[in-house]
Design goal:
- The chain is an alpha/beta fold and 341 residues long.
- The protein has two domains: 150 residues, NAD(P)-binding Rossmann-like Domain (Rossmann fold); 110 residues, no CATH class.
- Helix content is 31%, strand content 16%.
- It contains ten helices and 13 strands.
- The strands form four sheets. It has a seven-stranded parallel β-sheet, with helices on both faces. The protein has a two-stranded parallel ribbon with strand order 7-10. The chain has a two-stranded parallel ribbon with strand order 8-13.
- Helix 3 links the parallel strand 5 and strand 6.
- Helix 1 crosses helix 5, helix 2 packs parallel to helix 3 and helix 6 packs across helix 9.
- The radius of gyration is 21 Å and the shape is globular.
- The termini are far apart.
- 41% of the residues are buried.
Length: 341
């Protein structure tokens, strides 16, 4: 296939490009040339900023466009309008955050979020999901049958968010017998998707001519084969080659909240039951599985993520985006011990 990939040099886009090239597809990149500009030197490039200048895409035809960096409806609308009639299919990477509520598990036909201010271009925790929903609507105004993928938390090598990477990196750094703070319960189900599995599904779906919406996610907790927090910890211990697990300090949500721990950010992959996003990691992936989604073993995701993390310069290994700093973790462990005494 002749593929136009918008972005393609940071995280999800990078894995899309690598998979597409490995499969022998003809790839053209459209990006600003600011992130990893020397990556993929042999590929055709169109330089431009989709928020201000799409002129580099004024000419050309492709079998499909893969949009993995559309965050504002006007961006997606402008791109779709310009490419209509010159691309066979439009694939948009949305998010399960697009759903209106996480009080119950979401399937593809669940209601989508709505912006309180339809004109906002501020991307934050409150607007990110509704903006993704608005981007889907903007795309549908120009393409009647696009392929819309809604991934859950995307993880793996090159992830800039640290929301998953924290766990393999933290555990690999633990000394024998060192206490490591983890949210209870051990059997709590977790849901995420390896970026490489997302990329493989995207390309497979395009090659088969699939359209519609798919939650691209790991198996939710009510279905056999789901991943638990203990599974993640065990995989991290194995990937790090530790002779024995650290001294896990399990703390339930009430105890963590009492200590002022910020869900998801300070302790990644933890959402207390009363949190408005408590159902975020429980989305149905049945449609994607039926359409051919394949999930690689957890151990592979953890091992490869850790190897990538360890290859980074030390200055880039600081947990400034997500996760507990060593000092903050020590403070929390002391506070939890004091509250229990």
């Amino acid at each position: 296939m002749r593929l136009l990939i918008l972005g393609g040099t940071q995280f999800v886009g990078r894995h899309l490009v690598e998979a597409a090239v490995a499969q022998g597809h003809e790839v053209t990149l459209f990006h600003r040339g600011q992130t990893a500009p020397t990556l993929f030197p042999g590929l055709a490039r169109r330089l431009g900023d989709r928020r201000a200048d799409l002129s580099a895409l004024a000419e050309g035809e492709w079998d499909a466009v893969l949009d993995c960096c559309g965050y504002l409806p006007r961006e997606v609308a402008a791109t779709a309008k310009l490419l209509k009639g010159r691309v066979g299919q439009y694939l948009y990477i949305s998010s399960v955050s697009a759903y209106a509520s996480f009080a119950v598990p979401n399937a593809e036909d669940s209601p989508l979020g709505q912006l309180s201010d339809p004109d906002t271009e501020v991307i934050d925790g409150a607007s990110y999901g509704p903006l993704k929903a608005a981007c889907e609507a903007a795309l549908l105004a120009h393409f009647k049958s696009p392929l819309i993928l809604r991934p859950s938390l995307v993880v793996g090598p090159f992830d800039p968010t640290q929301r998953f990477t924290y766990w393999p990196a933290r555990i690999a750094s633990a000394q024998a017998g060192e206490p490591v703070l983890v949210p209870a319960p051990a059997q709590e189900p977790l849901q995420f998707i390896d970026a490489r599995d997302l990329a493989e599904f995207a390309l497979q779906a395009l090659s088969r001519g699939l359209t519609g919406r798919f939650n691209v996610a790991g198996t939710p907790g009510h279905v056999s084969g789901h991943v638990t927090r203990q599974d993640l910890l065990d995989a991290c211990v194995a990937a790090a080659g530790l002779a024995a697990a650290p001294a896990w300090v399990w703390a339930d949500s009430a105890a963590l909240m009492a200590q002022g721990v910020k869900p998801w950010n300070e302790l990644p992959l933890w959402l207390p039951p009363e949190h408005e996003y408590a159902g975020f990691m429980h989305c149905s992936n049945a449609a994607a599985l039926q359409a051919g989604l394949r999930l690689r073993p957890l151990r592979d995701t953890v091992t490869d993520t850790l190897a990538w993390w360890q290859s980074l310069p030390e200055a880039e290994q600081q947990f400034s985006r997500a996760g507990l700093s060593p000092q903050r973790e020590r403070e929390l462990l002391a506070g939890l011990a004091g509250a229990a005494s």
